Amino acid sequence: MTAHASRSGEPVDANGSGQGNPPFVLPIYQSAGWVFRSLDEVDAVYEGRDPGTIYGGSGVPNHAALEACIRSLHGTQTAIVTAAGMSAFAAVLWHLTHSGARIVAAANLYGNTLRLLGDLTKFGVRIDTIDAGDLDQVKDALRTPAQLLIVETISNPRLRVADLRALASLAHERGALIVVDNTLASPYHCRPAEHGCDIIIESITKFLGGHHDLVSGCVTGSREIVEPLRLPATRAGLISAAFDSWLATRSVTTLSVRLSRSSATALTIAQWLERQPKVAAVHYPGLPADATYPVARRTLREGFGSVVSLEVAPDRAAVDRLLAALRHIKLVLSFGGVATTLAHPATSSHRSLAPEQRAALGIHDGFLRLSVGLEDEALIMADLDRGLAAI
Ligand SMILES: Cc1ncc(COP(=O)(O)O)c(C=O)c1O
Q1: Which of 222, 264, 267, 268 has the largest count of CB atoms under 10 Å?
Q2: What residues of the chain score a pLDDT lower than 70?
Q3: In ligand 1, which atom is closest to the CA atom of 184?
Q4: Positive or negative: CA dihedral 344, 348, 349, 354
């Protein structure tokens, strides 16, 4: 109970706790400080004998509620909710690397993740990049001792699916932990722990959040490996805001309903795009012609995700005309929400790369990433048709 003086000088209960019947939905615990009624209670909460709360920045009931959802969705023992997907990576790297450590990372990781790894080199951490789709290359890279192997379940934006089971066993044979960024798949399409992976990261900002309105992330996995990250992550202020955790807890209840619909629509759109003369290439793991279709079939479940990448002629002015002709789909530099959106990686996620580095990744001015939402598929196709006609 929070008490402060009323105008008449009498203490008042500012939060109304303990009154009336409980709400159906967990309220937002928007409080930095928490009241302790005795020093024994302080000891009990710190020592975990009492499930109380210490401080807003160390996790409030809204985080605990979201963490329970993440554990259940991933079938894992522990989850830590962080301020963003990148904070989840920061927590893992902060705790599990040290001067002289070596990390083997997929060369096609999300650009910010690669840049965050690059930041570690100033502390004497060595980063070696590999093609995660080439298991011989991964095996060779792991011959030199490494602490971590880092991959994405579905890479952004080329949408290559990693063979998580094979990669996990290669990492474990060589004594490394495997860290998987599962953002594009979400636990609806893939639960990396079931494939033997140790540390799973999600940008909750995307499909788990799903409504274009929050930024959050999480790390999940076994109690033994992931729980020790909690204190360093808390110390470093990496824990998410109570309101974003509340929003995300609301969102995950509809994850399967949203993604069953959007992934089915994404497959239809990908098949339709394959037939469009102005589309030079379509990248979608659910297309039999796609490079990682066989891996996707054994790694993903319930479909192949809600993101489709496409290539048109590498002509920036023509792409601008395509974007201007769209009536419904907006250019938004994120993905995973209820509305269909388009992104242009060459000017956003990959803009800091040299043109030849972008070319090596196959990202040019005509490369577009479509995040499929919940609209009727006919509406999305009609809009894309208008855009393609304007090229
Ligand atoms: C694959 C992937 N991982 C991580 C992130 C970072 O997530 P956040 O923006 O929540 O920090 C992103 C963001 O786009 C992403 O695409």
Answers
A1: 267
A2: 1-18
A3: 1
A4: positive
